[in-house]
Write a structure and sequence with these properties.
The protein is α/β, with parallel strands linked by helices. It is built from four helices and eleven strands; from the N terminus they run ββαββββαβαββαββ. Strands 5-6-4-3-7-1-8-11-10 form a nine-stranded mixed sheet, sandwiched between helices. Strands 2-9 form a two-stranded antiparallel sheet. The longest helix has 13 residues. Bound molecules: NADP nicotinamide-adenine-dinucleotide phosphate. The site of NADP nicotinamide-adenine-dinucleotide phosphate has 27 residues, from strand 1, strand 2, strand 3 and helix 3.
Length: 182
Amino acid sequence: MRRIEGYAIVSTDGRIADANGVMPDSLRYDADQRFLQSALDRAAVVINGRHSAEGGPRAAQRKRLIVTRQIAAVAASPDNTNALLWNPAGATLEKALEALGVKEGTIAVIGGPEVFSMFLPLYDAFDLSRAARTTIPGGLPVFAEVGPNATPEDVLARHGLKPGPRRDLDASAGVTVVTWTR
Ligand SMILES: NC(=O)c1ccc[n+]([C@@H]2O[C@H](COP(=O)([O-])OP(=O)(O)OC[C@H]3O[C@@H](n4cnc5c(N)ncnc54)[C@H](OP(=O)(O)O)[C@@H]3O)[C@@H](O)[C@H]2O)c1
């Protein structure tokens, strides 16, 4: 009874942050934030790289694995009792979840690019939000495989996921979401 689901909002050119690793305001929309936050409220655990987090008032209450090479395998987070630091090179996902006390439920993967890419073979679903009026030339791609010849959708399809219907999150701002599933 375990499910792995990814969440990202990307620019028209498939980027999640600028070249300095900063997510610009042009990718931040209240409707997308509400969509993400309510999904994370339903998740059993959130997984993110050391530079990413969803923010919001409930972030500290969520069980979390913070992906980092600063430790060998699994270790306590110095500033968050609900989180563990996790190095996938030293401990399997199963071991990390066991250490966190998570047995079942949705595992929500929220980035950044390397973490999104690492889970590509494993996603049961990926919720890809798009901001139709934002481009971030030279920014960080949602997946390492995104480039001049591969959109995020191409990459998801390459890894066996299929798109559902496009839904408006904020029609006036051109923000949509498509849930990709196996
Ligand atoms: N638009 C969106 O939906 C979205 C989603 C997520 C993030 N973002 C934005 O993207 C930016 C962050 O990007 P980022 O590239 O810095 O990503 P990140 O994944 O948050 O952080 C990168 C760090 O995570 C650790 N890490 C990543 N892959 C690892 C692996 N395979 N094994 C062990 N450790 C690993 C490393 O930490 P150590 O240095 O500690 O080893 C690495 O320095 C932020 O601006 C964030 O807001 C946007």
